[in-house]
Structures are given as C-alpha cells and as structure tokens.
Structure prediction request, 551 residues.
Amino acid sequence: MKKLLELLNENPDFTVSQLAAMLGESEQAVAAEIDELKEKGIIKGKKILIDWDKLPDAGVRAIIELKVTPKPETGFDDIAKIVMSYDNVEDVYLAASSRYDLIAMVKGNTIQEIAEFVSRRLSTLDGVLGTATNFVLTTYKLGGVSFLDENDEDEQRSMII
Amino acid sequence: MDYSLLLNQKIQNLKPSGIRRFFDIANEMDHVISLSIGEPDFTTPWHVRQEGIESLRRGKTWYSPNRGFAELRSQISNYFARRFDTEYDPDTEILVTVGGSEAIDLCIRAIVDQGDEVLIPQPSFVCYEPMTVMAGGTPVIIRTRSENEFRLTAQELEAAITPRTKLLILPFPNNPTGAVMRREHLEEIAKVIEKHNILVLSDEIYGELTYGKERHVSFASIKGMRDRTIVVNGFSKSYAMTGWRLGYALGPEPVISQMTKLHQYAIMSAPTTAQYAAIEALKHGDSDIERMREEYDTRRRLIVDGFCRMGLQCFEPEGAFYVFPSIKISGLSSEEFCEQLIYSQHVAIVPGTAFGDCGEGFARVSYSYSLNHIKEALERIERFLNEKNK
Prediction:
C-alpha cells in the first residue's frame, strides 16, 4: 500500500496497468486498493504544481506563524478551522515548536494585502496571542519538485563506450 | 605523414564502439529522452563519498600497494564469501583494478597466447572481442538466442570448443540482454568445462542486480569451478561508483599473480581515494545495494510491461538494468529502427548490433533512469510505432 502511494506521489498519471506491473499485482487489485485509499481519505486528490513566480503578476506568499492558546475541549482545531476557511490560505499546519503553534501559507496580490489580512483577520481571532509574517522570496522546491531552471536534473552522465 | 605505417596494425583494424554514434546524434538535438546510458543514475551513497572525502582531508594521497590496500582486499574477501559463498585469500587471490574493465583486459592478456581461441557469447559487452584480438587471440563468437532467454547452453559451448580453446568468457548477468544464468544452467556449463583444459572469465559486474526470487550465483561457487575461474567484479554497478574506477579480480593464485605483474607495470595501483571509499561501501553498503536494486526492479517491471503492451516482444530480463526487446515487427533493421526513433521522437536507444552481429532485430534499452523519464520515453516509443503502422 505504501509502495502504491509512493508511486502515485511520484507520478499521479501512472495508469492502473502500469502500477499493477510495477507492483506485481493484478489490475483489479490495484484499482480496488486505490478506491479504498480514496474512501479512507488517504488519497485526497491530485494537484498540478505551478511556478507562479514565472508569471508577471505572480503576487506574493507568506508563511504566517501563529501563537495560539488552545481551547480546553478542542485544542487547536477550532482556530485552525477558522484559519483554513479563508480562500487565500493554502496550507495550515500544527507545529511542535516553542515559538508558535500554527503555520499558515497565505497568498495575496501584494505585501500590503497580506499584511492587512494578517492584522485584521488572523491577529484578531480569539485565542491568537501573536503572529509573525515571513514573506517568501523564491521557491526552490515544492512537492518534491525542483523549481530551479538550471537543472540539476540534466543528464550528467556521459556515453563512454 | 602516414601514421598508418607506424601504428599497430591490429589496433587500426579495431572497429570503434557502435554505441557512440547514437549518442552523437542525440547530443545535437533538443529535448532528447535517452534510454541509452549503461551506468547507474544513482549517486554514490553519501557515507561512501564521505569516506573518500575524509581520506583526502587526512592527506592520504599516495599510491596504494600494487594489489590494493590489504584492508580492502580483506573486505572484498569477506563480501564475496558473505554474498556469493566463495572464499578467496586476500593476500594471493585478489587483485584490485581500475574498474572491472582493467581486470578483464589483464585476465585475457595473462591467459591468451598467439592464436589461442577465446569463446565469447554474444550479444555481450563490447570489450571482450577487441581485447582478445589485441592479446593475439582469436575471438570465437557463440551466439546466444532469444528462445533460450539469451543464456549460453552446454550444447552451444561444447560445439564451439576446439583444441585451441583456452578461455571462455561468461558475461552474466548480461549487458545488453539482461539474461542471467541460474545455478542449474551454470552446472550444465561446468560439466562441459570439466572435460576440457580451459579457463573461465566470469564477468559478474552486475552480480548484485538480479531480480525475481533467485539471487545471482557466482560461477566460482559451482563445484569444481573455483580453480578454473577468474571472477571479475567491481563497485561501479552495485554501489553506483562508476566514476571512482574501481574493480577487482578473484581467482587462483597462479593466474592472479601473472595479472598482478601486468597491473604493476601498466597501472601500478588503483586509485587510492576510491579504495578508501570502497572499504566503507563493503562494510556498510549492503542496504544501499538493496535500496537501489528494488528501485531498478520497479523500473524494470514498468518498462517490460510497456514494451509488451506495444507488441515489442521482450523476454523478461532478470539481471543488470537493460531490456532487450525485439524490434522485428517494425520491419526495420536495428540501426534503422534506432535512427528513425531518435529523429522522429527524440528517444535514444542502442541498436542490438552494437553488441555483436547477432543483436540484429533487437535494441538495448537501459532502465537506469527515473520512473517519470521511463514513462515519457515509453509514450514516445508507442507514438513512433503507431505512426509507423499508419
């Protein structure tokens, strides 16, 4: 099962028959496994990786750290749910860190827009003790894929014989 | 000035390797997807590189002993006993060389006299024939067949032996076919060898890369064969250490000592840094071998499945990192097929004929590439075949 997920993570476009060949299983078995993984919510979907910085109006992104007081019953979940409900929030993590608890990746058109979002929408949330905003300057790697153009991926081996 | 009168006749008559031409075409094109390279795409495991770096940091930059560092030879001895069930004396039966290639050259030169016949199963790696010629020997080609899964059979061997036969090259797991010889096949070969006074050079450089249930069996481990066999192995394929240039020969003392003389005069000693790294690889690298082997196996399954679906008949290779599909349904020769494929779809593979005339009708495809790379190449090859069928 883990191997199947690793293969799909490497390339979600592998066909069921290719996956079956690589795993040495029948196509039916692999198709059933994928269905099961989807049903269990282990496979959440697939997304395309975009290097937004290549666009002229790329906008900006920031990693926002939030120091939060957990709620007695629900811990960090309530606040996390509010934070993630904003469309401009792309990722939200709970961290094990002494400095902050939640981390959110936020996108916006301008630095001001993000700064405003953080100060108006996030810092003011009940339970948020403080925030720190880290603007992203360059994406080097995302989802396991290098975003550098001078490619490390280029063939470095020689044909010698 | 006419150099042809001054240069050695035999070397002038040697053909340059046929693999290169397609690489030269590929080099001049954009967006080429190559499945033609015959070395691991993995980098040397980090802990192994670190040992190399550490040895440099400490300034260990002198020649090693001719035969290689004693610790390395002792680790090779342990390794071979551990993984291939055969013991060699580190002091007299092991020689560390500059890659497996040097060991092959030394072995042929140490054994072959003018006019001696050397049996070379083909398709196989390109070096045996020219090295035999340069040693003054006569190459006798034994053609292996796809219906035998490109194994050498006892009958074929027996039929090729003459009173002049001195050496059999046993190139398994095989480049370019991916064929392996299982224990029962080797035992059949051994029965023939026993009856004649000949030696065997078993090129086991891909010995760690076998797939399926059975692991590689060294020819030296077959009963009665240790005294007649020179095993060539190295670090390039098993530990992804091609550029370090390190291999070795294992064999009976009388042969190794002659090879050592040649090595001493022509090479002196194998690279020192590489030897320190190799000691680490042998000590702590078993899991690296396993990790890479599993990855190759996944790729192998993907590529064999892909060719079969396209209708390119392809026996299941059980070793090395090559598949050798038949391209006969295209109606083209191997050269034509590879040339049209590279011009129309920018996919580089190697015609089977680069590994002997009997490779006609086949092509060597390396799967020493990432799964994504292989997937893309398969799609392009399929497009090529579909266009041809229109």
